Amino acid sequence: MPQTRLDTARIRAARQVIDPAFLDTPLYRCEALEPALGCAVSIKLETANPVRSFKARGTEIVASLLADHGPQAVVCASAGNLGQALAWSGRRRGLDVTVVASRHATAAKLDRIRALDARLELVDGDHETARKRAAAIARRDGIRLLEDSLDIQTCEGAATIGLELADSTTPFDTVLIALGGGALATGVGHVMKDLAPETEVICVQPLGAPAMTHSWHQRRVVTTDSARTIADGVAGRYPIPAVLDDLLLVADDALLVQETSIIAGMRKLHDHAGLIVEPSAALGIAAILENRDRFAERHVVTIVCGSNVNIDDYHRWIATAPTHTS
Amino acid sequence: MPQTRLDTARIRAARQVIDPAFLDTPLYRCEALEPALGCAVSIKLETANPVRSFKARGTEIVASLLADHGPQAVVCASAGNLGQALAWSGRRRGLDVTVVASRHATAAKLDRIRALDARLELVDGDHETARKRAAAIARRDGIRLLEDSLDIQTCEGAATIGLELADSTTPFDTVLIALGGGALATGVGHVMKDLAPETEVICVQPLGAPAMTHSWHQRRVVTTDSARTIADGVAGRYPIPAVLDDLLLVADDALLVQETSIIAGMRKLHDHAGLIVEPSAALGIAAILENRDRFAERHVVTIVCGSNVNIDDYHRWIATAPTHTS
């Protein structure tokens, strides 16, 4: 069992406080995708829920713990999905939720955060600026700061996906996981290494936001000056040391993919699987497209982790990809 | 308990032979849709599975029964979804599957039937022509004819959706069900009337293919000379008397909707729920759009029953609907 910060028994226990709407998500073979990809592909679909991403698995745990001590306030920085999920989990438990986001974050995500009655503070700069501002608010107001990937509950929530994958009756060889801050990768990776150690755990990050992948390969924290990718959900620049330590224990590889491959992946999921997904959710398909030989004849699970897009941006992106007939 | 051809205990038992990939599908509140619709809306999503429709719930039961008696042959007529589902269920059990479809059926559905190794026979004419041809093949070859909605297993399969709705911890007022041959409506309707009789069961059919709805209102079989709708999955003209008898016992109402409303419904699901759906799956949203006062303040579940579309047709359709900003 990998000696990460995570514990499988605690993950199983945490699962009990998560609203069932976020659990036992579809896992299914998608043969229509396979001729284009050259391998067997199954989809773990994390978008058919009230917040259209996996993030509520973690915020349900966080909000449940906070609510146990009466009405509380909590603040987080978010590219949008964590904030939406925290707003959802907090609203139903009477928590006072503040989300800090970049002014350049995806508008559709910001709209949903507002609609869920959270306080939304926008900052100039990118997600790293939002992280600093959220920390400053927490210090100023003496309230709980939720830090994605650093807070163990965000990893435990994501890890419940791993429990569902490990329980699958259909054997598979590889799981492809979008890599940003690392909660999803370390969470799912921990459980796979514990319960299904023969399964290959591969992280995928955009070439334009490669900080965590560079860190994993160099086995030390590597930061970047900028993050340029349409995959807004994984566009961090400052990896968290404790998360990197865990990732080093559970990931078998970390791949970088080009923007054109992310877009091609979104298009494939659209044309052949009938799925609208956000760019981060297409990283797995992008990795297969760029590494056909590596995955040939294997059975790969890709976690479709979110579908919150500005719909006009989405259609502009996929219009630039090869069509479904090619 | 309604005295239909269905039996809730038998439905529970039948559930055991259905591949888990088709069961316990997502059921979730979709608040982003609600400002446009004026009521609380939950989605029961039947598209995130290997055949992208609910039809495999029934074909799993059919194929399982057939396979119990050794390798068998089976033929069905289909607008596409039943055929795809039967091909999937039959392939894994070594059955010899023939699907008869109209030459004008949705190409994407026919492609998937072929890809799943079924024999596909195309006929000139519409779905009713295909039904006659399938019956002739069954007589000629002495093989099992699967007739959608008439064969009780197709209704029992659909009825397992009702079990999941009745088990929901979230109370709701109304379920909106696409009405074609009637398997989905009688199946789900039977279970709701048995286990949650306070829930309103409303069927929705296109104005351009109204045979079953006219039959329900007139309490006798009414056929039509033509069926003109983009909702190919529900475009029958000859209601089956036994199915109508059941529908009369379990449906509280049957509504007809215009093609423009179906398209508007598809567009709403696309823009606000991030879902690509086929026209039949948008009938429920179309009904809300045409009857806002009736559903105002109610909590409505709509069964999103399929997502198999020709993607170019789909985009041509939704391009004609009002945009998400209006």
UniProtKB/TrEMBL annotation, chains A, B:
GO terms for molecular function: L-serine ammonia-lyase activity; threonine deaminase activity. One of its GO terms (biological process) is L-threonine catabolic process. The keyword Lyase applies. Keywords: Lyase, Pyridoxal phosphate. Its cofactor is pyridoxal 5'-phosphate. SUPFAM superfamilies: Tryptophan synthase beta subunit-like PLP-dependent enzymes. It comes from the Bacteria. Residues 20-306 form the Tryptophan synthase beta chain-like PALP domain. This is Pyridoxal-phosphate dependent enzyme. It comes from Streptomyces cupreus. The lineage of its organism: Bacteria, Bacillati, Actinomycetota, Actinomycetes, Kitasatosporales.
